[in-house]
Amino acid sequence: MSKFQFKQFSIEQDRCAMKIGTDGVLLGAWAPIENNPFSILDIGAGTGVIALMLAQRSNAEQIDALEIDEEAYEQSVDNFENSPWSDRLFCFHAGLDEFVEEPEDEYDLIVSNPPFYTDDYKSDNEQRDLARFVDAMPFEDLIEAADLLLSENGILAVIIPFKEEENFLALANEYELYPLKITRVKGTPTTETKRSLIALSRNEKVNFLIDELIIETARHIYTPEYIELTKDFYFKM
């Protein structure tokens, strides 16, 4: 299925190694926008789904995305142009290192579903494996870029494997970026925690929120929390 239809926009993904998955949708729906971001940056755009979800959710006037893979970059551009928010969305064909060399803007919200690599992702598709390979974007590069690019009250929001959470927070702490909220994600009530949704800011909070999100109780029987999070996007919710 190359076309993926959401309530207010659709995504073509035939040229992207990384298809739309739960991780991107979770981050796009979860990323905090309480600070009313004027400018948003999506690092590693893929199909552009996260940037598009944030265009739908927020009033941000400038939503930039960054994609190094040429095919994915072209796909993102098409998806942006075919959306209701094409005037607010822009994709750069560049790597993070090039982008931070001459930063022109600060961003109130930076989001990333960074390519990470675990053994359970080894596939027969090299392009997909590359897209998943953590070397494509080490966490430290991402955090360092956020430190350079975030506005004073800006927020960095990511989704990463749960087992990397402690490591990620320790790195962030070195750049004086502190947790604002953490949501740990499980597929079902009985499976192990797979992902961490983490929001960071420059302001240290003593009692930040940590909660848990369970996606489904049985196959395709979604929890009220997951439905509440994604209902503005998925038709079936």
From TrEMBL:
Specifically methylates the adenine in position 37 of tRNA(1)(Val) (anticodon cmo5UAC). GO terms for biological process: methylation. This is tRNA1(Val) (adenine(37)-N6)-methyltransferase. Its EC number is 2.1.1.223. It catalyses: adenosine(37) in tRNA1(Val) + S-adenosyl-L-methionine = N(6)-methyladenosine(37) in tRNA1(Val) + S-adenosyl-L-homocysteine + H(+). PROSITE patterns: N6_MTASE (PS00092). InterPro entries: DNA_methylase_N6_adenine_CS, SAM-dependent_MTases_sf, Small_mtfrase_dom, tRNA_Adenine-N(6)_MTase, tRNA_adenine-N6_MeTrfase. It is found in: Cytoplasm. Belongs to the methyltransferase superfamily. tRNA (adenine-N(6)-)-methyltransferase family.
